[in-house]
Amino acid sequence: MMKMRLFVTAALMLLTAGCEGLLGGEEAVRVPLQPVADGGYAPVRILLKPEMNTVAFNLHADFVWGKRDEAGLWNSYRATLKSGGKVIHEQEFQVNSPESSNATQSSPPPASLLQPMMRIDLSKEDEYEFTIASLKPAAVKLNAPHLVVRVNTRRL
Fold it and tell me: Which of 27, 91, 131, 147 could form a disulfide with 118 if both were Cys (CB 3.0 to 4.6 A apart)?
């Protein structure tokens, strides 16, 4: 019994640590994203400073409910942070459909997405450009996508 409690406590600590990029620090910016023809989103410009480190960039959106035809599908993206036209950091990520092909699933799929895209320490104050480009045609529909920038997050 004691080992089970220790295991559960350790699992909760790991889960909490994994959420730090999403929940740690403070929300500095929440910007609605404007879709572009290729399935990505228009660039967003944000003033950031080194005293805001570590900066986390997250994608928040709503899934379309009941899209069983999206089960097993995903979108592939590349997030790019630029300063003065030069790439500072790039990170690829995927958004998987929450739908299950199992029609007898007992609980509904998640209604929203909280997707970490990038965490970075910045070396200078600047107006940075953040872009999310689609690497393939989008297969999963996202509603109300937002870029959420959190500052003063802990480094994992």
Answer: 91
| Residue listed under structure tokens 């070396």 | 123
The whole-angstrom separation of Cα 57 and Cα 22 is: 9
Q: Which pLDDT does position 105 carry in this prediction? A: 60
pLDDT in tens, 39-97: 999 999 999 999 999 999 999 999 987 788 899 999 999 999 999 999 999 999 999 99
Tell me the pTM: 0.82
In sequence order, the β-bridge partners of residue 79 are: 91, 132
Return the DSSP state at 111.
S
Please, where are the H alpha helices in the chain? 2-18, 20-23
14 — phi, psi (to 5°)? -65, -40
Instruction: Look up residue 129 and give its amino acid.
Output: E
- Please name each of the domains of the chain with its CATH number: 2-151 (2.60.120)
